[in-house]
């Protein structure tokens, strides 16, 4: 298992992880095959997830630059091919009260508007590209998993309404039961914008759009060496050297320590685990998730779940701490236990898929789109902290403008700086282990 804090690079031509998405996505649109021989380009993009592919698309469409995308494995092999497929107005994991406390009302509001713009851009790209990604109707619910968590949710709903002009509804336990049956139903809040979709189909749609606009997208082309010579970047791949005037790093949580020294300690890959059940019967669906809204709960180690178009339940949550331990069955069993605990009606349900991936956390909980320190002509976006499905559209558009030499002016300066480093980066995993113990204790206390 690739572990971004330990392994030298993510592999070479690895197939997609076995998942419900890989099993149901159909056939990948054509790509450009691995790099063969030496190539010269204006912009090379490392990584073919949403960030890399939208950057390539916007570079071609808005700046007339036909970039080359280099992917170590199959297209969208990282987070973009394996996430939960929740798209919402968010760029990180901070809620209104935290945004306002950290940045003040006007900055928090401008940042939230940018995340709404990201969601709108995502919808526009899906429409423009005719991407058939099984998008479900809008609606995101955060549920109070304990009675004591409802007061905090009411505060967030009020801030959404009063400070962000965003009509969030507070749901009593009775109102929640129209969307969510079972246990842990002490009320919730419902966001009117945000939807679930098939993440790999979305990535493949972007692949088609980027190539149709003129970009070349090369799978099985890991960047395994990087030299600077005569104002150019020489990126070494197994099939040949790509010489570029500018480089975009779009490797996010799958960035290895070897890729660029200035990125070390600026991101924290956290493993998230997903399980998918067999299709539910109509009675089981009615007794668990009667609606297709996207659900998240109030745990620190949160559960995210929704009913898929074919009536399966996708249920995600915390997984292993290290790559070595990631495939241990106890992680999927612990999620199954949590699922049945929420929905006793699913006691007999069986699992058909399980997988996981590295979510990229930033220290301050918001994403960053920036020029890499001491590396002019190298740009990077990372740290979506579990909310990259929509925010990568804004990041891709901004990275394209930076690499084209026409940087735009984002609505806030918050996300333009390099991500702050984690203190004691060598002890990240130990810190995570201790934090998980504390979170489990807090999550169980009313
Ligand atoms: C289990 C899970 C669930 C998630 N659920 C959600 C969700 O529901 N909603 C949401 O908004 N977000 C979610 N996320 C996060 C979201 O998927 C990411 O924020 C988003 O996909 C990031 O896209 P990206 O293009 O920046 O990075 P990625 O999609 O991770 O792409 C990075 C790519 O870089 C490649 N790469 C790395 N090193 C090299 C190299 N040296 N040479 C060439 N290529 C290289 C990797 O192979 C990888 O394909 C989830 C993530 C996980 C893991």
From TrEMBL:
GO annotations of cellular component type: cytoplasm
Gene3D superfamilies assigned: D-Amino Acid Oxidase, subunit A, domain 2, FAD/NAD(P)-binding domain
InterPro entries: FAD-dep_OxRdtase, FAD/NAD-bd_sf
GO molecular function, one term: oxidoreductase activity
Keywords: Oxidoreductase
Location of the FAD dependent oxidoreductase domain: 43-402
Pfam family, one: DAO
Name used for this protein in its record: FAD-binding oxidoreductase
Organism per entry: Pseudomonas cavernicola
């Amino acid at each position: 298992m690739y572990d971004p804090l330990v392994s030298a690079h993510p592999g070479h031509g690895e197939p997609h992880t076995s998942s419900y998405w890989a099993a149901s996505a159909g056939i990948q649109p054509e790509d450009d095959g691995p790099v063969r021989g030496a190539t010269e380009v204006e912009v090379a993009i490392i990584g073919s997830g949403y960030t890399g592919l939208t950057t390539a698309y916007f570079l071609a469409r808005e700046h007339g630059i036909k970039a080359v995308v280099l992917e170590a494995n199959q297209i969208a092999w990282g987070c973009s091919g394996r996430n939960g497929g929740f798209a919402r107005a968010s760029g990180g994991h901070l809620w209104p009260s935290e945004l306002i406390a950290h940045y003040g009302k006007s900055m928090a509001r401008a940042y939230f508007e940018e995340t709404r713009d990201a969601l709108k851009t995502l919808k526009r790209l899906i429409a423009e590209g005719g991407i058939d990604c099984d998008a479900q109707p809008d609606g995101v619910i955060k549920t109070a998993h304990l009675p004591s968590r409802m007061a905090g949710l009411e505060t967030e709903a009020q801030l959404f309404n009063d400070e962000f002009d965003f009509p969030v509804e507070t749901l009593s336990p009775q109102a929640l039961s129209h969307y969510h049956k079972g246990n842990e139903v002490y009320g919730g809040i419902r966001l009117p914008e945000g939807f679930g979709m098939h993440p790999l189909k979305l990535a493949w749609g972007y692949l088609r759009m980027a190539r149709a606009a003129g970009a070349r997208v090369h799978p099985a082309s890991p960047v395994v060496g990087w030299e600077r010579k005569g104002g150019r970047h020489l990126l070494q791949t197994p099939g040949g050297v790509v010489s570029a005037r500018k480089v975009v790093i779009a490797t996010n949580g799958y960035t290895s320590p070897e890729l660029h020294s200035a990125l070390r300690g600026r991101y924290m890959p956290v493993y998230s685990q997903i399980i998918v059940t067999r299709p539910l019967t109509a009675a089981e669906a009615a007794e668990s998730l009667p609606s297709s809204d996207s659900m998240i709960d109030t745990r620190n180690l949160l559960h995210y779940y929704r009913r898929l178009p074919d009536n399966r339940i996708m249920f995600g949550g915390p997984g292993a701490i290290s790559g070595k331990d990631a495939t241990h069955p106890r992680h999927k069993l612990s999620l199954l236990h949590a699922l049945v605990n929420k929905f006793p009606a699913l006691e007999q349900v069986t699992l058909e898929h399980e997988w996981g991936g590295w979510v990229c956390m930033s220290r301050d909980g918001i994403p960053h789109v920036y020029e890499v320190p001491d590396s002019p002509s190298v740009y990077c976006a990372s740290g979506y902290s579990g909310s990259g499905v929509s925010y990568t559209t804004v990041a891709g558009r901004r990275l394209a403008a930076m690499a084209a030499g026409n940087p735009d002016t984002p609505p806030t300066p918050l996300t333009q700086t390099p991500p702050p480093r984690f203190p004691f980066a060598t002890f990240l995993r130990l810190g995570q282990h201790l934090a998980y113990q504390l979170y489990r204790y807090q999550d169980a206390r009313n």
